[in-house]
């Protein structure tokens, strides 16, 4: 896991924890960026790898 300015990258190995882990990551990034959760995006950035962040260009 790494946290860069407004994004968090996660490698999630267990598919059973995918939803819970991504939901928790959205809440975490939302709190860190002081942005509402509906402005936080989840992008699949590789195999089992997801980037969660505040992406202004996608809003």
Q: What order do the helices and strands come in, and which of them pair?
A:
Elements: E1 2-4, E2 7-11, H1 18-33, E3 40-46, E4 49-54
What does this structure look like?
With 59 residues, this protein is α+β, with helices and mostly antiparallel strands. The chain has one helix at residues 18-33, and strands at 2-4, 7-11, 40-46, 49-54. Strands 1-2-4-3 form a four-stranded antiparallel beta sheet. Strand 3 (40-46) and strand 4 form a beta hairpin. The protein is globular and about 30 Å long. The termini are far apart. The mean pLDDT is 87.
Provide a concise account of the structure shown.
With 59 residues, the protein is α+β, with helices and mostly antiparallel strands. The chain is built from one helix and four strands. The chain is globular and about 30 Å long.
Keywords:
single chain, 59 residues, alpha+beta, four-stranded antiparallel β-sheet, 1 helix, 4 strands, 36% strand, globular
Measured as a percent range, the helix fraction is 25-40%
Anisotropy-based shape? globular
Q: What is the strand tally?
A: 4
Biggest sheet strand order reads 1-2-4-3
Structural class: alpha+beta
Mean pLDDT comes to 87
Largest sheet: 4 strands, antiparallel
Percent range for β-strand residues: 35-45%
**N/C terminus separation:** 24 Å
- Low-pLDDT parts are none
> Which value, in Å, is the CA radius of gyration?
11 Å
- Give the count of helical stretches: 1
Please trace the helix and strand order, writing H or E for each element. EEHEE
